[in-house]
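Predict fold of V-type proton ATPase subunit a; 788 aa.
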Amino acid sequence: MFRATEIHLYKLYIEREQAFNFLTKIGQMNNVNLVNCSNNPFNEHDYYKQLKRCDDIYNKISEIKNLLNLYNKQIHYCPNYEEFISNIKITEDQVIKIEQDLTHKVQFILNQQTNLQQIIEQRNKLEEQIAVIQHCKEFVYKFSGIQLGYIVGCMNTLDSHKFNRIVFRISKENGIVKFQNLNNQRTLFTLVFTLGKHENLKNKLLKICEAFNVSIYQLPEENNVETKLIELQNELINLDITISTTKQEIDQQLDFFSDIQMEQLLDLNIIYDYGYCSYICELKIILDMISATYYHLTFFEAKSQFLIGQVWCEQSDIELMKQTGVQIEIMQDINEKSYEPPSLLKTNQFTHIFQELVNTYGIPRYDEINPGLFTIITFPFLFGMMFGDIGHGIVLTIFGFYLLIFGQSIMKRIKLENHSEYLAYADFQSLYQCRYLITLMGLFATYCGFIYNDFFSISLEYKLEKFQLGFDGKWSMSESHLTVMNSFKMKTAIIVGVIQMVFGILLKGWNCLYQRKLIDFFFNFLPELAFMLSTFGYMSFLIILKWLTNYSNNLEPPSIITTLLNMVFTLGGIKGAEMYPHQVYFQTILIKIAIYSPIIMLLKPEVIRIKRRFFNQRNQQMVYNELVEQEHAQVELVKEEKYQIFGKLVQNRVIKEEKHFDFSEIYIESLIECIEFVLGAVSNTASYLRLWALSLAHSQLSEVFFKMSIEPQIQNGSIVGICLTFIVYSLATFGVLMCMDTLECFLHSLRLHWVEFQSKFYKGDGHHFQKFNYLHFLDQKFQFSTRM
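Predicted 3D structure, encoded as C-alpha cells:
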C-alpha cells in the first residue's frame, strides 16, 4: 500500500473459439486490467451484435419484472454474489438458450394476459347486461302498452350529467333519462322518448349515445326475460372459471421466475451462504456476466483467426493464465515507457475506507508514494484533536464497535428480508464500510479527551501512580483555565501541523530519489525542507523549549511571536535575554537559509537549460561520429547527401524531449511554484489552527449545554427537573455534537490532508486500475444503479 503494486504490460494472442472461455477465467481473477486496443469503432466490432442481443434480453427481463410487480410477486435478490459466481459456469451458448426460453415464456405470459383482459372485459359486459335487464324488468316492461321508445345501456359515471343535458335539449323535452349507479365508475341508464311526433328522434339519440361511447343492450321479450337471465348467469359462471384458470397459468409462470429453484424450503442463513435467489435474478446475473465478457472482448483487435489484446497484471496472474490451458503468446514489457501504468492499490476491509479518502482527491501515480498508508493514523488523530472529549469519544467508539460486531448481521438481514429497501441497504453499506474509521476516530477522541481532561465538559480528578495523564483537574477551578487551555491547544496545533508538513516534504524527496529526478531533489525538495525547518520548524522548537524552561524564578517568559519578528527584521537579532546559548548566531544562519532557499528554487530553469544544451550537443556529436565512420568505410557522398544523412540520423535517434519545450513556460512555472510554496507555508501553518478552533468550539458547546440544562437542576436538587433536562441535554448533545460537530471535524480533518499535507508531495493525477472481475463488476452495478 506504500506504492502501487508492480505490474507489467503483456500482449495476448487468443484464438476466436477460445476467447470467451478465456475471458470467463480472467473474470474470476482479481487483478487483471484489459487495455482497449481495438482500432475499430465500437458499433462495428464483431461482438457488438452479441451485446445488442444482450440488450434485447434485458428488455425481456424488465418486462417480467414489471409483471412480477403487477401481480405482487416477491423477488428474492441475490444476497451473496461471491458464492453465486463460484457455483456457476457461463458459456457462450447460454445467451441463445436464455433468449429462447425468455422469448417463449414472455410471449406466453403476454398472450395469457391479453386473453385475461379480454375475458374480464367480456365478463364486465355480461354483468352490465344482467344489471340492465334486471333494472328494465322493474321499469320498462311496466309501460309496454304505451307508445314509447327506449334505449337502455351503461355509461361512465362522470358523463352522466352532461349526457342528461344534451338528451333534454335534443329531444325538446320529449325524452327522459333515468340513472342507477352500478359501481363507482359505471352507471346504468334508461332513455325513454315519445314515438310518432319526431320521426328522427331515435336516430339522433343513438348518435348521442355513440358520441359518449355508451354500451347499448337489446332487451329480450317480456316472456323470455327469466330465460335470458339464466343463460347470462351460466355464461358468467363459465367466464369466471376461465378467468381463474388463466390467472393460475400466469401465476404458475411468474412463480417460476420469482421463486428460488430448489425442491425444498430453505432457511434464510442457507440462502445467504449459498447465494440462492429468484430464477429471474439468476438469469439477470448470468446475463450481466455474459454482457461484461462480450464488452471486454471488444477491447481486442480482431484478426482473421485471432484476437490480439493487451493486459496489465502481475507476474503471478500471467502464470495463472498459462495454467488455463489456452495457448497464449506473451510479449512482456511492450514499449512500456510509452504507457502510463494504472495504479493497482491492494486494500483490505481495514484499509479500504482510508484509501477511498485519498482516491476522492485523486488517484496516485504508479510510481509515487500513496498517502493512504499514513492517513490510517493521521486522519483519526487530527479528528481526535478537534473532537477531544472522553465521553463523546467513548460514545463514538461504542458505535464503531457496534458496527464491527453487528454490522455484518444487519447487512445480511437487510439483504434477505427487505428486498425493496435498496436505499436502506446502500446507505447502511456506506456506513458499514466506515466502521474501522469510526472506531479509530472514537479512540483518538477519547485519548485527546484524557489529555484535555474533558468528560462531557466536566474535569475529572484522577492521577496515575507514576505520572499524570493530561491536565490536572484542578485547572478547571482556576480563572485562567480557558487561557491556559487555548494556549496549549493553539501551540499543539502548530507543532502537529509543522510536523505533518515536514513529513510531506520528506516524502517528496523520497519520490524524487525513487523516480531519479535529481534536479527536483536538489532544487525543489532541499530548498523547501530548508525553508520550512528554518522558519516554522524553528518556531515549533521555540514553543517546546519554552514549555521545558522553568520561569518561576522571577524570569519573564519571552514572547515567541516577538522573537520571530525580531529575527526577521533584524536578520537574527533578539531583544532581551537569550532563550538558549548562541541564539543570535543560530538565528542568523536560519534567516539566511530562509532567504536563500527560494533563490535556489528559482535556479531550477537555468539548470534545466544547461542540461538540455549539453544533452543536445552530445547527441549531435554521436551522430557526427556515425557519419565519420561511414566516410571511413569509403562511402563517397556528395556534400548535400552528407547533410541529408546527418538530418536523418538526428531524426532517427530518439531524443527524450517534449514536442513543445518553451523555457519561458518553465521560468514562469518555477516562479509560481516558488511563490506558492512560500505563501503556502505561511497559510498552511495558519490553517492548522483550525485544530485549536474546533476543539475550543466543541468544549464550549458541551459546557454551555451542561450549564444551561442539568447543572441548575443538580444545584436545586430536583429529581424531576434532572430527568427532564437530561432528555433535553441528551438530544442537544446528540444532534449538535455527535452529529453536526462530528461531520464538521471530519470535513476539516479531510481538508488538512488534501490541501496542507498532500499538496507537499502528492500529484494525484494517476488513473485507476480497472480490474476485470465479475464480483467487482456486479457490486459496482448494484451500488450505482437500480436493483435488477
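Confidence is low (pLDDT under 50) at residues 649-660, 784-788.
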